[in-house]
Design brief:
single chain; alpha/beta; 5-stranded mixed β-sheet; disordered N terminus
Length: 643
């Protein structure tokens, strides 16, 4: 049976007992068959055939260079995680095609615009991934993650059955609806154009509208999807993104600049280095910066054209504790911001006199923003506005302590993953969440903005403008950077050097003589403690202007162990203990008993077949040994793979 690209007539009632797979180069017409895990209703009529180009099937999977890369072994399973599907790019073609179909189905059931972002974020350049963006610009609803996982794991001769089963389950959504459209964006990876074509083929199975938005940061596509469905006017463009954030930045900047004129002790250093991770954030941040007031920021861009995420980017800086490549000439104490490959993560650092760096991660950014919001809400006496800070078990313990003791906010804890953080944050009128890796944002309710719109006070105006500078639908390195810089401008005293962003986090732990770290805890020597106590109390550092919370010397530095199947690892809700395999948790408990005060846990990745080993101890040596011993326990149980 030969199928063409021309519109095909209805198949009418098709026989579910038919088992057939007809190859007709270059396309495949896949018919349903029985006895599968998908349940299909009898009597479905007027269905169009499911046509799949051979290069977008599991057996014919072909990479962007034209190389045949069948999925091997054939039973290989994939899971839709927080970041969607993410693999080596040579395995992504068939996945992108099927995700394209699923996105079109989501668009048809909602009657709205849906996004598909093609990126592997902070992963190496040879990887790629696809994820679906829901109508409000947020992550894909959890029940649809199950649909995605089931559909991608179907064999080629099961795919049409899965498609038709979903169509029936979702009440046969209309085909060709003018309000249903899939918007696709991609980062700078070489495989991106090919995967865009795969997504387009999948979207076209049932003739859903498709728009290639070209090169975008991940947050830009989230913004466009939200704007398409929620804002008046014509279809939004990339320029609307720049206009939105730059205009609110300028309005708040003008107000803060006037405050500086009225208060001579206020001073802000505009010089800022940005590591763009050799990714999409480089050209897009230049576009945004061009629309900012000329004297607002003096940006020096680094890592714009090289190998993506190679010795640069937020993940590299967080894990290695080193300055990125290309920062050799940057002098000590100059403010440095770091993006990741798709510009949805932001961390800061500065060089110390000895050449090492101090990392200012997502936990610290969260507290800086939280203090700004908490102070303004208190000044305005907005007690009817619910406010929350959301964290995971991997957050800096001293940040949680600061929230309770200084901000009078008990953080809400959720399982690891942005989708959990965002879901919890959305329950409040105003909520802040950041992961230590720098991914985070602030969410707002309609009530929050309605209340502020009725308030004439200057504090209300500042708060309203700041809340528009922030991309509320997703973590966004560029808009988060604008927010951080505005808050620093509002807060910083003229006596503060570029180390200001660190000192605000040192003080609490110095007073107890203990530094908490992501991987370990170390006791501070008395001499060092005295030195930093004197430093923190010095008027030259203006400590009172910032939150005083302990510094985390290492930023959630996990050991990554590759495993055969991450689904074999299941944790408790707070992810600090394994339920399965129980033997491994017994081993961890035994190792912890040998080290007073140590803490460790293992959790599976949400996107890849790896587990992350997290360990803390009172010395670096103990922490390293503990992590290594747990990794060995994983191998001993036969759960480890070499590649």
């Amino acid at each position: 049976m030969i199928c063409t690209r021309s519109p095909l007539p209805s198949l009418g009632h098709f026989d579910c007992s038919l088992i057939s797979l007809h190859f007709a180069p270059p396309d495949i017409l896949i018919e349903p068959w029985t006895g599968l895990k998908f349940v299909i209703a009898a009597g479905m009529a007027d269905k169009m055939p499911v046509i799949v180009p051979r290069q977008f099937t599991r057996t014919g999977n072909t990479d962007h260079l034209g190389n045949h890369k069948p999925i091997d072994p054939p039973e290989t399973r994939f899971s839709y995680g927080t970041a969607g599907f993410r693999e080596h790019s040579d395995r992504m073609s068939f996945i992108a095609h099927r995700v394209g179909y699923l996105a079109s189905l989501r668009a048809r059931t909602s009657g709205k615009a849906i996004g598909v972002m093609i990126t592997a974020s902070h992963n190496p350049e040879y990887d790629n991934g696809v994820k679906i963006i829901d109508p409000n610009g947020e992550m894909l609803a959890e029940e649809w993650e199950d649909h995605a996982t089931q559909l991608i794991n179907a064999k080629d001769d099961e795919f049409a059955t899965g498609v038709r089963a979903l169509e029936t389950e979702l009440n046969d959504p209309p085909v060709g609806s003018p309000s249903s459209i899939v918007l696709v964006g991609r980062d700078t990876r070489a495989s991106g154009v090919h995967l865009t074509e795969a997504v387009q083929e999948g979207v076209g199975i049932f003739r859903t509208q498709f728009k290639d938005c070209g090169l975008l940061t991940t947050p830009q596509l989230h913004f466009l999807v939200h704007a398409y469905n929620n804002l008046p006017g014509g279809p939004p463009t990339e320029q609307d993104y720049y206009n939105h954030f730059s205009s609110y930045f300028k309005d708040l900047y003008d107000i803060l600049r006037q405050l500086q004129r009225l208060s001579p002790t206020k001073k802000y250093t505009t010089k800022l280095h940005i590591d763009c991770a050799n990714g999409i954030g480089a050209p897009k941040m230049r576009n945004l910066a061009a629309k900012l007031p000329a004297d607002a920021l003096s940006i020096q861009f680094h890592n714009e054209q090289g190998q993506l995420n190679h010795k640069c980017g937020a993940d590299f800086v967080k894990i290695s504790r080193e300055a990125p490549a290309g920062f050799e000439a940057v002098v000590a104490n100059e403010r440095c911001a770091v993006f990741d490959g798709d510009a949805d993560r932001l961390v800061y650092f500065y060089k110390k006199d000895n050449g090492q760096i101090e990392l200012l991660d997502g936990d610290k950014i969260a507290l800086l923003i939280a203090k700004f919001y908490k102070d303004h809400l208190a000044e305005l006496k907005m007690d009817d506005i619910s406010f929350a800070i959301v964290q995971t078990a991997y957050a800096n313990g001293n940040s949680s302590k600061y929230m309770k003791e200084e901000l009078s906010v008990t953080p809400k804890f959720v399982p690891t993953g942005v989708k959990h953080l965002h879901h919890e944050a959305s329950k409040y009128d105003c909520a802040i969440y950041f992961e230590a890796n720098g991914h985070g944002t602030v969410t707002f309710s309609d009530k929050f903005f309605d209340t502020l719109d009725k308030r004439p006070e200057e504090a209300a105006i500042r708060l309203r403008l700041m809340s528009r500078v922030i991309n509320k639908v997703v973590g966004d390195a560029m808009s988060d950077l604008l927010a951080v810089e505005l808050i620093l401008r509002y807060t910083v005293n003229d006596r503060l050097s570029a180390t200001d962003f660190l000192i605000i986090y040192l003080f609490a732990d110095i007073t107890t003589g203990r530094f908490r770290t992501g991987l370990r805890c170390t006791r501070m020597r008395p001499a060092s403690r005295s030195k930093y106590l004197a430093l923190a109390s010095s008027p030259q550092l203006g400590i009172k202007h910032f939150p005083q919370v302990g510094n985390k010397l290492d930023s959630n530095l996990w050991v990554h162990s590759r495993v055969m199947d991450r689904s074999r690892f299941r944790t408790t809700k707070d992810e600090t203990s394994l339920v399965v395999p129980a033997d491994l948790q017994d081993d961890i408990n035994f190792l912890l008993e040998k080290r007073d005060g140590a803490r460790a846990f293992v959790r599976p990745s949400g996107t890849e077949n790896i587990v992350r080993v997290y360990a803390e101890a009172y010395s670096q040596k103990d922490a390293d040994e503990l992590a290594t011993e747990i990794e060995e326990a994983v191998k001993t149980l036969g759960l480890y793979r070499l590649k």
